[in-house]
Amino acid sequence: MKTSPSFSLALAGLCAAPFALLSFNETPKTCCTGHPAQEVPPGCVFKTVYEGEGIDSAFVLKTPAEVLSSENRAYDWMVAAQNKDGGFAAGQHARQEVMDPHAVPSDPATTAMVSMALLRAGSTPDEGRFASTLSRSTEFILNCVEQAPQEALNITPLTGTQIQVKLGQNIDVALAAQYLSNLMGRMSANDPRQSRWLKGLNICTAKIQRAQTSNGSVQGSGWAGVLQSSFAANALESAQHAGAEVDAKALANARAFQKGNFDANTGTVATDAAAGVTLYAVSGSTRSSAKEARLAEETMERARKEGRVKKDAPVSPAALQKAGMDKDEAERMNTAYQVYNAAKARAQANEVVSGFGNNGGEEFLSFLQTGESLIINKDKSWRNWYDATTARLVNIQNNDGSWNGHHCITSPVFCTATALLILSVNNDIDALVAQGATTAK
């Protein structure tokens, strides 16, 4: 299958972005839309950054007018797609021709993706433009989690959904965990519902960890199972940040599996679990190495300032040991740093971004992973990625405001939610930077 002309045109500028590290100085606080704190519009959720750290104003990007217009059309379409039970539906893999979102049963994976998109828009279950929609979708997800048998690895009796067949049988629990972590971070720590959300999150993380195989991947891989494993790793990382019960060894194994799909020295990509598509594998490698790569960078920056290493010393195992890490940690962080920097460039190369050859839900998910990785790492090149990727998405939006895939995950609900998470990722800069924060030695 060939890429459409508009799709190819929008890809053109991706590789030209220079990759550079930022130094971050204290700046006036801004809300999720980039407004100064004293001008925060209704529904905007302000997230403070780790240890009061400021974000350079050059890192923040106001949403362009054409993107806002695209988002608003998509939000209207998506809210109308909610089912009476509060959930959202992708439909069965065996019936991909069914595009009516109300003609198929709600599933937790799709509902979680929509819910995360509405959170990123600035709403909560209590306040904002989508409060009512989020309140109902949150209840749907919690009911799925709470009613699932303890011994089950997933949180739904549904099988054969588009998302499960293409990503993995247990993708619902990973995406539900990601949503609950995000929700907890948006709401007051004193909210009496936090205990219920945390209990649900702990149920999900326990299932994710039980489903982990010896190599760090997740059981029940689908057509592009590397993405299920990548989202499971993301979910454990977010859950740990939210205070859930996460086994540090399980998280380390999940990250190691993702990093292992890319050899930074040779550029070789393991695509056996990625349906042979390089994009799916390298976006997961980038996302799962971003936090550790940032720790390596920040540790080295501090060591340079303190004179423990030379001012021009590159990241290496030896330099990281001089900066204060033990040998094993230095080796691990150096690997993450090298994988991140090589994989992020590969993930944005024109021939890789084309993915399967045209747009499917897996491509949208991969773009999302790459963008979030760049922000978590405080990588200035995220703005170049954002400009190119949002231009591509705006150009291929359907007339009714939705997006749908042209292969594999074709669901308009799932694809629209993922596209919105990409378009509005600049709303979550504070939260993503905070999630990637670690303590440099």
Helices, strands, pairings?
Layout lengths: L4 H7 L53 H16 L27 H13 L10 H17 L14 H6 L3 H16 L7 H17 L14 H18 L5 H12 L18 H29 L10 H6 L4 H21 L2 H4 L7 H16 L5 H15 L15 H12 L5 H7 L6
Give the biggest sheet: none
Subunit organisation of the chains: single chain
Count the domains: 1
Q: How much of the polypeptide forms β-strand, as a percent range?
A: under 5%
Distance between the termini: 50 Å
The tally of helices reads: 17
User: What Rg, in angstroms, do the CA atoms define?
Assistant: 20 Å
Descriptive notes:
With 441 residues, the chain is mostly helical. It has a single domain, classed as Glycosyltransferase (Alpha/alpha barrel). Helix content is 53%, strand content 0%. It has 17 helices and no strands. It has helices at residues 5-11, 65-80, 108-120, 131-147, 162-167, 171-186, 194-210, 225-242, 248-259, 278-306, 317-322, 327-347, 350-353, 361-376, 382-396, 412-423, 429-435. Helix 3 (108-120) runs parallel beside helix 6 and helix 14 (361-376) runs antiparallel to helix 15. The protein is globular, with a radius of gyration of 20 Å. The termini are far apart. Residues 1-52, 268-279 and 351-357 have low confidence and may be disordered.
